[in-house]
Design brief:
The protein is an alpha/beta fold. 39% of the residues lie in helices and 18% in strands. Strand 9 and strand 10 form a beta hairpin.
């Protein structure tokens, strides 16, 4: 009898340990049930944790979940630098061109390149350009670095941070087909309005369509004939203009001496050359002077020349300001030019 009672007592103890005492837990919420069982049966909780971990956790027994914040990213401005490699005909480093516009531009560019020998159209959209460069000088540098065709190559560069878009071409298309006036007018008609509304893809698509049409015109028989005539007259004019500028820079006074009435060739100029009295800025023109003395009577005169104002300026972190012209290929850090023309516009 003693052994039988002992066996029944042991069986009852373990049954209560694993199955618990009946209570009103069937009408309580799940979280309360688990908390109630864990509070009244700590030994069973430890034993069962080795057999089968609980699939439902109470509020005070939730696992320590860490949130990974390393996926958060910040937008870094894209900058066109001297080392930027060419990757495809449409390079959208700022991620603003929609897929439809990209496909349309790529199709247009491929069609022109298939129809015209040597034709190239390159599109680049960035947030800014390398420090020390203007959009124009960077377009000129990349045109040469990427070996775009000097006779039929076109680079369209849009810089969102400076709200400037440039069309850069080689010498075969410059001055006549893609003059500064034509490029500015074209950009005003195709890109500026969409860009102001941040519709960069449609704006570039219209620009590329117009550029492609102009390339086809330049490749036609009539425009080629006109270009052949220009190829002879333009160099002669440029040589004459360059020589005349050198002559005027060396002997700017074209008046006789007011004292002895000697001719303009009697003026002897100061060896110090030109002296800038008023520096030009992007707001006002400047002035430079050169002192001259009549070799016959000693009369002194001052030659004055106006320095044209600059197109824009750039302020650096150290407080210095550098002025530059959009048409200049080297005034703002450019390394030479593409031998062409082209032009740009602001939006």
């Amino acid at each position: 009898q003693f052994i039988g009672r002992t066996w029944i007592s042991c069986f009852t103890f373990f049954a209560l340990l694993f199955f618990g005492v009946p209570d009103n837990s069937h009408i309580l919420p799940a979280d309360t049930i688990i908390q109630h069982q864990h509070r009244h049966h700590p030994i069973r909780q430890k034993i069962q944790s080795f057999i089968q971990p609980p699939s439902v956790y109470a509020l005070d027994t939730k696992p320590n979940i860490k949130i990974d914040t390393t996926q958060a990213t910040t937008t870094t401005p894209t900058i066109a630098t001297k080392t930027l490699p060419k990757a495809g005909t449409v390079m959208d480093l700022s991620g603003v061109i929609d897929k439809k516009s990209r496909r349309s531009m790529e199709k247009t560019i491929q069609s022109v390149q298939n129809d015209i020998t040597g034709a190239q159209i390159q599109v680049l959209f960035v947030d800014d350009v390398q420090n020390g460069y203007s959009p124009k000088s960077m377009a000129t540098f990349l045109f040469r670095k990427w070996n775009l065709d000097p006779d039929n190559g076109v680079l369209v560069l849009a810089v969102r941070g400076q709200r400037r878009i440039e069309i850069q071409v080689g010498r075969g298309l410059g001055s006549y087909y893609f003059s500064q006036d034509w490029c500015r007018r074209t950009l005003q008609e195709t890109a500026i309005s969409p860009f102001k509304a941040e519709q960069y893809g449609p704006g570039l698509t219209r620009t590329v369509d117009r550029v492609a049409r102009r390339l086809r015109e330049a490749n036609s028989y009539t425009t080629k004939f006109m270009g052949s005539l220009e190829s002879y007259t333009l160099p002669v004019f440029l040589v004459w203009a360059f020589g005349y500028q050198l002559y005027m820079d060396a002997r700017p006074l074209r008046i006789p001496c007011p004292s002895c009435q000697a001719g303009p060739n009697t003026w002897a100029y100061d060896t110090d050359g030109w002296v800038i009295t008023t520096a030009a800025t992007d707001m006002n023109a400047g002035e430079k002077i050169k002192l001259a003395t009549c070799s016959k009577c000693g009369q002194k005169e001052t030659a004055r020349l106006v320095i044209p104002k600059f197109d824009a300026r750039r302020e650096y972190d150290d407080g210095t300001i550098k002025y530059y012209n959009y048409r200049s290929d080297s005034s703002d850090g450019g390394d030479g030019d593409s031998g062409g023309d082209g032009g740009g516009a602001d939006w």
